[in-house]
């Protein structure tokens, strides 16, 4: 059996703790139905036996404390909600124990923005991490040594698993179950809990917010110019002329500060403009595309699908108000 330690971190959401406990425990029932041995021994493992969550709204009783667990096989870090810097400080009590367990071959399953705490331990340095789109800019600022992945909801690297997107942690749990026990059990869990096993990306849910906490005035002015004029088709040379800067240096600084090339940034702003109008549902798809400044409808459709994983028509069907 694999011993699973679910850590009730400070500012963790009760749902992510309980869901992890329920799903992994239920796997054992499915194994018994198939006349197989239980696979997971699941425990809540806290810094103390009694933990308050949700500013005292909930109380969790741990099965054991970290001082009682010398070795575990799988550590689940739940989703955090609140002030990440404060949560990191409060959860520092787990850092040494978590690091020791990882170096002792334990796998770490990190649910969504629990990654802020995991990154603070240094275990994610030089590794890939999926981060919720709304927290990506803050995460990049705090942990520049971590490689953010935003085209997939799950990363799997050297025994550390992360996911981006609030309830996408359910898909990460399915992924772990499949890795340990095979596709058949994972599909069974997805059916019993009614989880969409094929969800692979955050892109359809993402709202683009440019990174602006970089302190570069020229880049910030360029961002404002692009964002305030989503219907304009500025070339990079035109932007440089307006700002009075050289193209080569500007492009390099823009990429470094925002994480996007200038062309990518323009595309994302235009796609965000189109999404809002598609959600409103009053204009035709072609009218909206022309308003973004694109004359080539097919070209914009390709850009839109690349960024959202949906065609403009499918996006409207999914999100029209």
Walk me through this protein's architecture:
Keywords: DNA-binding, Transcription, Transcription regulation. This is Helix-turn-helix domain-containing protein. It comes from Danxiaibacter flavus. The chain is of the alpha/beta class and 321 residues long. Helix content is 47%, strand content 14%. A 7-stranded mixed beta sheet has the order 5-2-1-6-7-11-10, with helices on both faces. It has a two-stranded antiparallel sheet with strand order 3-4. β3 and β4 form a beta hairpin. α1 packs parallel to α6 (169-181), α1 (14-33) packs across α7 (183-193) and α6 runs antiparallel to α7. The longest helix is centred in the N-terminal third of the chain and has 20 residues, at 14-33.
Features:
single chain, alpha/beta, Rossmann fold, Arc Repressor Mutant, subunit A, 14% strand
Briefly say what this structure is.
The protein is an alpha/beta fold and 321 residues long. Helix content is 47%, strand content 14%.
Annotate the secondary structure layout.
Elements: E1 2-6, H1 14-33, E2 40-46, E3 50-53, E4 58-61, E5 64-65, E6 74-77, H2 84-90, H3 95-103, E7 107-110, H4 115-120, E8 128-130, H5 136-142, E9 147-149, E10 154-157, E11 160-163, H6 169-181, H7 183-193, H8 217-228, H9 236-243, H10 247-258, H11 262-280, H12 285-291, H13 297-308, H14 312-319
Parallel strand pairs: 1-2, 1-6, 2-5, 6-7, 7-11, 8-9
Antiparallel strand pairs: 3-4, 10-11
Keywords: DNA-binding, Transcription, Transcription regulation
InterPro entries: Class_I_gatase-like, DJ-1/PfpI, Homeodomain-like_sf, HTH_AraC, HTH_AraC-typ_CS, INH-QAR
Domain HTH araC/xylS-type: 220-318
């Amino acid at each position: 059996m694999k011993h699973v330690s679910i850590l009730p971190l400070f500012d963790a959401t009760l749902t992510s703790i309980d869901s992890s406990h329920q799903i992994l425990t239920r796997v054992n029932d499915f194994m018994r139905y198939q006349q197989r041995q239980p696979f997971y021994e699941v425990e809540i493992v806290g810094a103390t036996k009694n933990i308050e969550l949700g500013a005292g709204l909930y109380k969790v009783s741990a099965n054991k404390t970290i001082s009682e667990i010398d070795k575990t096989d799988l550590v689940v870090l739940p989703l955090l909600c609140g002030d990440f810097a404060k949560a990191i400080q409060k959860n520092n009590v787990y850092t040494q124990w978590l690091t020791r367990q990882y170096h002792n071959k334990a796998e770490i399953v990190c649910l969504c923005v629990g990654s802020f705490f995991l990154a603070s331990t240094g275990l994610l340095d030089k590794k890939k991490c999926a981060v919720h789109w709304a927290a990506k800019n803050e995460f990049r600022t705090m942990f520049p040594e971590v490689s953010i992945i935003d085209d997939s909801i799950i990363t799997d690297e050297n025994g550390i698993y992360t996911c981006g997107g609030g309830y996408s942690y359910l898909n990460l749990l399915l992924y772990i179950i499949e890795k340990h026990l095979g596709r058949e059990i994972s599909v069974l869990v997805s059916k019993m809990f009614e989880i969409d096993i094929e969800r692979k990306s955050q892109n359809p849910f993402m709202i683009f917010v440019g990174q602006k906490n970089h302190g570069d005035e020229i880049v910030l002015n360029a961002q404002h110019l692009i964002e305030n004029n989503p219907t304009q088709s500025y070339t990079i040379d035109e932007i440089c002329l307006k700002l009075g800067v050289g193209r080569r240096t500007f492009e390099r600084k823009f990429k470094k500060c925002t994480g996007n090339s200038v062309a990518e940034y323009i595309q994302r702003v235009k796609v965000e403009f189109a999404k809002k109008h598609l959600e409103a549902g009053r204009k035709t798809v072609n009218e909206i595309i022309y308003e973004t400044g694109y004359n080539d409808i097919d070209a914009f459709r390709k850009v839109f699908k690349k960024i959202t994983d949906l065609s403009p028509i499918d996006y409207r069907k999914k999100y029209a108000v």
